[in-house]
Design goal:
Elements lengths: L10 H20 L7 H8 L3 H8 L2 H13 L11 H17 L1 H14 L9 H19 L7 H17 L7 H22 L1
Helix pairs in contact: 1-2, 2-3, 4-6, 5-6, 5-7, 5-8, 5-9, 7-8, 8-9
Pfam family, one: TetR_C_11
Protein name: TetR/AcrR family transcriptional regulator
Keywords: DNA-binding, Transcription, Transcription regulation
């Protein structure tokens, strides 16, 4: 089970979550992350620190929850007219977001908030990426195109982008992203022809 709390819809709970998230985002924009405390966030949000602790447990979980909301896609991936074009456009945007200062900070917060007990389940960020890739592949199927499996794209496109970012390796370039997507699409084509 995820360590990130799932908000209850509506009512006071939703108002508290919105106020605390807003206060956290504002403080993150104004101060160094290391200087932010739960009492500071609670005061800005107009709630008690015990409300924050009761709902999120600790600062790391709160920062992870805020990061997950910021990483949530705002809409469907761009439609370029082809599966390969859509995958390249999405992956390049993902690369840009993950390699920004904000993207790096959000990923760090999500990883720190999850803890070691959650290592065997996909985090919300992975679920967001998978859902975006599923939209692209379903859209392609509707146009009569086939594409690679979502897990193949996660392993061969998403994973190298995140791995390089997290471990201080050279950032994936646009050319890297294009090559990784092309390799996945080309590798899927013979398997799909054989399966017909």
């Amino acid at each position: 089970m995820s360590s990130i709390p799932v908000p209850r819809p509506g009512g006071r709970s939703a108002r508290v979550q919105a106020a605390v998230h807003l206060a956290t985002r504002q403080l993150l924009d104004e101060r160094d992350r290391a200087d932010i405390t739960v009492p500071m966030i609670a005061a800005r949000a107009g709630v008690t620190p015990s409300t924050v602790y009761r709902r999120w447990g600790d600062l790391a979980e709160l920062l992870a929850d805020v990061a997950v909301e910021r990483l949530r896609p705002e809409g469907e991936p761009p439609d370029t007219g082809s599966v390969q074009g859509d995958l390249v456009a999405w992956a390049d945007q993902f690369r840009d977001e993950m390699n920004s200062d904000l993207g790096r900070a959000m990923v760090r917060d999500v990883v720190l908030g999850r803890g070691v007990d959650a290592a065997d389940e996909p985090c919300a960020c992975a679920r967001f990426s998978k859902s975006q890739l599923e939209v692209i592949l379903e859209r392609g199927k509707a146009r009569g195109e086939q594409g690679p499996e979502v897990d193949v794209l996660m392993d061969h496109v998403v994973a190298p982008i995140v791995y390089r970012m997290m471990f201080g390796l050279p950032t994936a370039s646009q050319a890297d992203v294009r090559a990784w997507v092309e390799a996945c699409v080309e590798d899927a084509a013979p398997r799909q022809r054989a399966g017909r």
